[in-house]
Design a protein that fits this description.
The protein is an alpha/beta fold. The chain is 33% helix and 22% strand. The protein has a 7-stranded mixed β-sheet with strand order 6-5-4-3-2-1-22. Strands 7-8-9-10-11-20-21 form a 7-stranded mixed β-sheet, covered by helices on one side.
Length: 469
Amino acid sequence: MSDIKLTFLGAAGEVTGSSYLVETPHVRFMVDCGMFQGGREADGKNRAALNFDVKSLDFVLLTHAHIDHCGLLPRLTAFGYTGPIYASEATAALTRYMLEDSARIQEKDALDRTKRSRKAKEKLPEIAPLYSIEQARDCVGTLTGIDWETRISLHRDVAVTIRNTGHIIGSASFDVEITCGADMRRVVFSGDVGSPHRMLVPDPVSPPAADVLLIESTYGNRTHRPIEKTRDELIEAIARAHREKGNLAVPAFAVGRTQELVLMLLDLVRAGKIAHPPTVFIDSPLAEKATEVTRKFLRDTDEEAQALFGGLNSGKIPLKVIYTASPEESRAINEIRSGAFIIAGSGMCEAGRIRHHLMHNLPRPECGVVFVGYQGEGTMGRRLVDGAKSVRIMREDIDVRAQIYTLGGLSAHADQSGLLSYMRGIKKVPSQTYIVHGDAAVSKEFAGVIQAQLGWQTMLPVGGQTVTL
């Protein structure tokens, strides 16, 4: 059998930058093309990525629309790739908005950094964004939606089947059948695996078999808090803010987490668990668009989600939800001293409107900041979760006096037991299992758990490593 080579371009020993290159003598393709996020090294890694002949790629597979999985696609096409990018239909729809939003952030950050360097009289060239809004829009034209659970031939040597992973709407694993010579290898890319029994999306679907498995490990070393405890913590955070006459600021990913959180609030209000419902501000044009896509693809959501969205639309559930599109509407929220539940991006506090709300609410002890997702190493969100007494936002030192809450049960990623359950669903045990998409120490611990509980042999790849399948 001729060699099938797999190169780990990202998310190996780290959480972000998901990207994998598969090569045989006859076909060459990528799975995901994600942006590195968090920490000072991220920008340099993003600029150094894709340092190979991208024009030689036959196609690209995209597991879902989060930026750490799709965020470098505009650079890929700007470098000359013109082939198709395959994803679920919902992912194809979401990615358009995600990339345009990312491009706006890239352009603004580049402009701000250039202005700062000139103000400091540094003799530096103008700083270029990773990509422009125009390049993001050009990239979107190559996205092609494919159906769930349908085997599709993408090349004479490659067929794929996508299955729902219950992470965000449209999130998929890729079951890739690669023929090389007289043999065939089934390579499964898990993408991001969601927690079971969530309100927004269905439970993850395991593939029936795999010769090679790439499994994410974001939370491979822990167990999430029970959802009941998470609900209780959210109720208490809202009750405290009401008693103390403060606000709650909620850094949340625009896609997935925002919709999940709104559903939980709707459910709690419907059940009478929140005596004084706050006014919910979704301060994110991207989140509004993501919600529109979610409603368009309600068939990909859980039945409970469909009922709750119906209750909101009909007014039967008395929760006031306001979308703030313009910068003026966003700034007006900061005039509100109490009763506001402000959901804004970015989820790790690295950019976006949440930073303005943090500036206004972090110094106030009557307020709270509610974290509902993973906080990567080196991010402001991680520093706040770890107990920082002050943080620097827009060149100002901001004291942290607000109450910090971490609601682990809302994670869109499966915990250790959820990941093991997903793996147990694979009836044919893989001969090669690669632990990816996790901090190095977490992936190592999860590898030991897999070997102890499942008896599978595991490998811990590093960035840039190439292996033979």
